[in-house]
Amino acid sequence: MREVTERIDVDAPPERVWDALTAWTRQGEWMIATDVRTVAGPAQGVGGRLAARTGLPLPGGRHVGLLDTMVITEWDPPRRVVVQHTGRLVRGPGIFEIEPRGEHSTFVWTERLWLPYGLLGQVGWVLVKPFALVGIRLSLKRFAAFARTF
């Protein structure tokens, strides 16, 4: 398992940051090259299902690329939500935590990834990780702006 953790301070109270984070279908407004939809309901609690597509943008706001299916396994508003990635390539927990700082917050995003394909997956991770980190960091900057005005 490989782990990546990034954090950003957000000039918004935890409740607003939570609401912005869990507005799943709006994640494409801040998450780079990704669109998210809920599956079979609003996905606002344990058992909720999500599907994200990350890749090249198409007309109409959709993307062609990697399909990332998820199920919510922990739900503790406005502090923590954990999604279990259940796809063929992306597997493992994604952990979103909001740490209160008075009227502000710190948003912490952790991905714990199980790598497929043995040694090939490990080598692939070495090649992909720098790009994943750039995408996560840029997405976090966009999220901080998104949550401030949510």
Give structural attributes.
150 residues; alpha+beta; seven-stranded antiparallel beta sheet; 2 helices; globular
Any overview of this molecule?
This protein is of the alpha+beta class and 150 residues long. 26% of the residues lie in helices and 44% in strands. It has helices spanning 14-21, 118-148, and strands spanning 2-10, 34-39, 49-57, 63-76, 80-86, 91-101, 104-113. It has a 7-stranded antiparallel β-sheet with strand order 1-7-6-5-4-3-2, with helices on one face. Helix 1 (14-21) packs across helix 2. The model has no long low-confidence stretch (mean pLDDT 93).
Q: Based on helices, strands and strand pairing, what is the structural class?
A: alpha+beta
Strand content: 35-45%
User: Helical residue percent?
Assistant: 25-40%
Q: Uncertain spans, ≥5 residues at pLDDT below 50?
A: none
Number of helices: 2
Side by side, the strands of the main sheet go 1-7-6-5-4-3-2
Query: What's the alpha carbon Rg, rounded to whole Å?
Result: 15 Å
Count of β-strands? 7
Average the pLDDT over all residues and give the rounded result.
93
What is the CA–CA distance across the termini?
A: 34 Å
Q: Biggest sheet, open or closed, and with what strands and sense? A: 7 strands, antiparallel
Q: How is the quaternary structure best described?
A: single chain
| SSE run | EHEEEEEEH
Looking at the structure, what is the overall shape? globular
